[in-house]
Amino acid sequence: MLTREDDIDVHALRRQGWTISAIARHLGRDRKTIRAYLNGRQAGVRTPAGPDLFDPFVDYCRARLTEDPHLWAMTLFDEVTGLGYDRAYSTFTRQLRVRGLRPACEPCAPAKGRPAAVIDHPAGEETQWDWVELPDPPGSWVAAGYTGRAFLLVGALAHSGRWRGVLCSSMEQPQLIDALHRVTVALGGLTRSWRFDRMATVCHPGSGKVSASFAAVAKHYGVTVAICPPRRGNRKGVVEKANHTAAQRWWRTLGDDVTPEQAQAALDEFCATRGDARLRTLGGRRGTVSSFLADERLAPLPAPFPAVLTAERRVSAQSLVAYRGNFYSVPPELTGTTVTVAHRLGATSIDITTGQTTGRLPTVIARHRLAADGAGVMVRDSIHITALETAALAAFTTAAPHRRKQRIPPGPAAQAAADHFRDKTTATAPDPGRVVIDLAAYDRAARGRNTLR
Q: Could you count the other beta carbons within 10 Å of the beta carbon of residue 351?
């Protein structure tokens, strides 16, 4: 078989008047081969060795795969084998691939590779929101409620591209509401619309209708809620790219010796120094994200929506409860138990409750002023301090601990118990000097014995 380059030379030399024999000698080929290519054989195309045995089954396979694009090739192979196809399975699948008989399933196709329209994002119009699941948080975060994974709520201004994120221990609605407010504060204000994917805490995933509980949040902040159609990741591509940046440039390099509050501070610094310095081109103007922020014209925020955050914490040996990088005291009798910290957003205090209830409300065992997150302060009530000192002193002893090889003989109490045991044993034992005068005892002992030798 000739290559395409040889085929070109054959036709060029023939046009110049060379004979077939001369061309064959020049290229080192057989004359019949040269004649075949001059007569129309295509370079790089093999002539079938025989009839196409798959051709009679093409229409059936195309129809079946159009009806069910996910039909297994092995299942289809079983069907065409029953119709008379007698070649191997590998030959069958190769024919399916070469002929392109399996159509692409649009609902199941990934968003990558699809045509994407250019979406206009007017200044101050839209904030895009999304959760990022962060695996394998540091082991020390378990005490703060991060069990096995952490969650990052990312908010991005669609026009300028500025984004911020807040770490959360769960994706529950109170956590979402708190993170929404904190991210909006970091972004500088409110846009006219908030865009979400189909979060169960925002809308009903099936219908896309906003839930009643989140409708109250949207009305509180005075924003409209836009829900993305399913499987349309490109619709909120600004926050999707921010998610990728947060996972790969911040979370991936986070150390094991940081607290959640320190990690949050590191993320805020990264966004302010690296994220806001990113270059963009908007409206034919080149600049950083920060340079376009003035165009947003964001609205001021109201007070936080009064959602109640709850978190379970274990009381330490010092009768302290850790919450958001600070420590709050409780009565010493709760040491080692699990309590619940409740914080109403916007309030300046927190309540610590137990599982016990009075009527329908949990029993509040302590109420403290809320310290700034990550301050590392210890907020203690004077009553708790006094009770803890009293309990510690009551449990204090000056007795020296026992040594492993110390000689400790039985004491008076043990000796008295031993003497009492001996007296009872002696009272019930038979008297060795007692004379047996009852001959019936001998009779019972001798009965049944054979006295003959």
A: 19
